[in-house]
Amino acid sequence: MPGKSRAELIRGYFSAYQANNKAAVAAVLADDFTFTSPYDDAIDRATYFERCWPDSPAFSSIVIERICEDEDAAFVLYRCETADGKTFRNTELHLFHDDRLRAVEVYFGASYRDGVFVAQKPSS
Predict the structure, then answer these.
(1) CA dist., res. 59 & res. 74, Å (int)
(2) CA 117/CA 55 separation, integer angstroms
(3) Helices (H), strands (E): how many in the chain?
């Protein structure tokens, strides 16, 4: 019986993240999982949960706009609205080993509040 498609795994991951279901996310992450973003350089699984996991649901919505699969990798374009009304779009590269998520690389997009562009602080 074939495993789930990368798109199905990604949709489950995002659904669990929006629901603040840490156990469901932990179940799909490989033991050697790494997370990279403009703020994090290949942090490990434990550090990911410390830094990136909210104490309460942070997003009122996460809408996946596109998933492009290529063997053990997939790019995801998504739009989020935070609990305080900020919206943004990001792209992520998800790398898999079998049915487990081995790495995520996040690329940030622009942010908006009430439809108005919100400039981010420049990096140093």
Answers:
(1) 22
(2) 27
(3) 3, 7
For the chain, which residues score pLDDT lower than 70? 1-2, 122-124
Instruction: Indicate the length of the chain as a whole number.
Output: 124
Cα separations (Å) of 94 from 6, 113, 118, 123?
9, 28, 27, 25
- 27: its two tokens: 């179940």
pTM: 0.86
At residue 75, the pLDDT reads: 98
Contact present, 123 and 38 (Cβ < 8 Å): yes
Instruction: Report the distance separating Cα 7 and Cα 46, nearest Å.
Output: 25
* Stretch (H or E) spanning 62: strand 59-70
State residue 89's pLDDT score: 94
Residue given tokens 């596109």 in the structure block: 66
CB atoms within 10 A of CB 20: 15
Q: What is the pLDDT of residue 44?
A: 97
- Whether the Cβ atoms of residue 103 and residue 95 lie closer than 8 Å to each other: yes
